[in-house]
C-alpha cells in the first residue's frame, strides 16, 4: 500500500470511456444512484446528505492513500455512466476494486471496461501485489465482471450488514 500524497487523480481511458476525477456536477447522478433502491440493492442505499459524505470521502481517498474513485464518462456522449474505484478500506493493506454503473447504462459493458482499466492501473502502474473485490452473492452482474477480470473466490465476509464474497487476484 502506497501512502504518498497525491493532489491529482490519474486520468485513465479505454476505447469508450474516460476515467477522471469527480466534479461537483457529478453529484446529482451519484446521489440518484444511491437513492434508487434497484441501483443500490447491493450497496448501502443513501439519502442525499449521506450520499454527499460518501462522494466527498471517495474523492478524498486520493489525498490519504494515493488511490480512490474515478467518475466514468462515456467519451462519445460525455455522459457520466458510473464510477469505479481502486481504494483501501480502513486497516486493509489489500487494494480493493469497486464498480458501479448507473441504471440507465446497465448492460453496455461499461463496468467491465472501466474495472479492467483500473485493474491494469493497480497492477502495472501501482505494482500492487494483490487486489480484491467484495461482492454480494446475489449480484450476478458484478460476479460476471469479477470473473472476466480473473478474480476468484477466496472467503466470505460482511459489508453494510450483508454477506459478501471476497474475490481476489494476485499480480503475476
From TrEMBL:
Highest taxon listed in the record's lineage: Bacteria
Q: What is this protein called?
A: GNAT family N-acetyltransferase
**Classification lineage:** Bacteria, Pseudomonadati, Pseudomonadota, Betaproteobacteria, Burkholderiales
Q: Which InterPro entries match?
A: Acyl_CoA_acyltransferase (IPR016181), GNAT_dom (IPR000182), N-acetyltransferase (IPR051531)
- Per UniProt, residues of the N-acetyltransferase domain are 17-172
